[in-house]
Amino acid sequence: MIESLILGAVQGVTEWLPISSSASILLVKNLFFNDSSINILQFSLFLHLGTFFAALVYFRKDVFLILKTVFQYNSSSEEDKKVLRFLVISSLITGVLGVFLIKYFEDFLNIGPVATFFVGLFLIITGVLQLKKREVGKRDVLELKTSDGLLLGVVQALSALPGFSRSGFTVAVLVFRKFKEDTALRLSFLMSLPVVLGGNIFLNISDLSLVKDNLPGLFTSFVFGLLTIDILLRLARKYNFGRFVIFFGLVAILASLLS
């Protein structure tokens, strides 16, 4: 129970920063709960439900507009239609590729030192991507294209692997495609919602022991996520976390070599 509570809190805080919450969970688990037998990818996905509900509360106006567009598509604004199409395309791509990656790498990522080493490597790649100089973009949601949904679906699927920060990776790619930073951040978190919900329905809902044993973690993930989302998203907009992510990755690699 203590393990679940602590890892839920880690998820709740790190989800809003471009540092890979899944990597943070894996590293804390391997460093402090190394005798645990949990499946790290399934467990991390389950804890994302807590921050899913926190994001629903925070982005409730956007979520309401999306749901309204689903049921009143013809009378919706062009902006809302484009956001909905983007979310549908990106979610379908992420779902197909993400399930493949989770099934292919789940055993590998439960081998402590090896997993920690590759998580560190993925973190360094993420950090370098974040440090790359960005030009100020002018695109907004009215300029969303099918290609944006396809590309971001692939990018988000890669973040199923701990170390590739979902928010950091997707925001960076959207900014590289000339979207405004605020638009990129909003789209990034909106596109995570259907994937987290769908992933848990297809991969975790039948695993009653995982759900029952980790409800405390789900609770702390939601509470810490709700308490920190506003201030941490402000920090994510204001500061570049690239150097910190690279340092985090180097520490992970060093820890794997010393273990």
UniProtKB/TrEMBL annotation:
Q: Which GO terms describe its cellular component?
A: plasma membrane
Cite the EC number: 3.6.1.27
Please give the Gene Ontology molecular function terms for this protein. undecaprenyl-diphosphatase activity
Enumerate the UniProt keywords alphabetically: Antibiotic resistance, Cell membrane, Cell shape, Cell wall biogenesis/degradation, Hydrolase, Membrane, Peptidoglycan synthesis, Transmembrane, Transmembrane helix
- Transmembrane segments annotated in the record for this chain: 40-59, 83-102, 108-129, 184-203, 215-233, 240-258
What catalytic reaction does the record list? di-trans,octa-cis-undecaprenyl diphosphate + H2O = di-trans,octa-cis-undecaprenyl phosphate + phosphate + H(+)
At the top level, the lineage of the source is: Bacteria
Carries keyword RNA-binding? no
What GO biological process term is on the record, naming one?
A: cell wall organization
What is the membrane topology listed in the Swiss-Prot or TrEMBL record?
Answer: Multi-pass membrane protein
> Where does this one sit in the cell?
Cell membrane
Q: Which family does it belong to?
A: Belongs to the UppP family.
Note in the entry: Bacitracin is thought to be involved in the inhibition of peptidoglycan synthesis by sequestering undecaprenyl diphosphate, thereby reducing the pool of lipid carrier available.
* Function noted in UniProt: Catalyzes the dephosphorylation of undecaprenyl diphosphate (UPP). Confers resistance to bacitracin.
Q: What is this protein called?
A: Undecaprenyl-diphosphatase
